[in-house]
Amino acid sequence: MGSCFAKPWLIECANKNRNRKKYFSTAMSESRQTSCVSRSDHITIPTQREFHQIETSTYWLPKDDEEQMRLTGQHFALKEIFGGNVLQSATDILDLKQGLSILDVGCGSGVWVMDMINDYPDCNYEGCDMVNIVAQKPTPKQFTFRIANVLEGLPYPDNTFDLVHLRLLALALRYDQWPSVIKELLRVTKPGGLIQMMEPDYRVTEHDDIFCKVVSALITICEAKGQNPRIGIELERLLREAGNIKIIETKSASIDTTTGSSVAKKIAWSWMEGVKGTMKVSAPVLGLKDEKDQQRFLKEFNHCMETKCGYLHMEAVVAQKL
């Protein structure tokens, strides 16, 4: 199955609000986003994947171009699922057209920020991550990137940002690290400002099929690394326990990949690319001995998501610093 996010995965377009310089845009055609999802006749498993080399990190997904394309596709799926890059309550409280300060923690390629800039070009954006993937692409002047590990403290003063965003770190943080991360998010948020978090709830259903085997393997790997595969359902509690905060909104979303909808195809594609990218780690857990086994397994996995079982459960929370 080939990638439907051909490089560059974000199409350059004129930034109408900033001297018409060319920056990354999130303009992607629907057909381009989903055209490859159902093509499972030939599945290529890259033999060389690039991973983080930070010893203190438990993150076990790749950091290469293929993974950035997967994260970009996942971004568009999540935007469609939740009706935007920020929940409705956040836009009700914050006037994002008034040049606010926004931080994306663990920003990766910066796709969330770039998409936000398209929607709210007058805001000022900061992004940070353990490695600098953003530098590989031109970025708009509204956006500043810094290398930083939230576990070691964010490089920003107290009470700096109107909105702090963090998502998809379930496979990066251990159980015991979440409270300190949330306290750090709270520290850099202005009084009255908002924190938005979004994480998966990886859980196995009662079905006995190949998709559930994948989820079970994911859970096994997470637990071996001290991670919480169901961190999504813990977010509200963790935020409340941090103190000095008010929960504004919680929102759950579940996607069934067998429906064949636009967003279902994106999620299925993301699952497939994620399993391919982590095959080095997951193959022993799944009992796959060689590439032939892996090819067969991935074809059956893709077919299962199309016809029998496949899903993603996500949880999002918006909280206000008092």
From TrEMBL:
Methyltransferase domain: residues covered: 102-193
Gene Ontology molecular-function annotations: methyltransferase activity
Pfam families recorded: Methyltransf_25
Protein name, entry field: Methyltransferase domain-containing protein
Organism: Rhizopus azygosporus
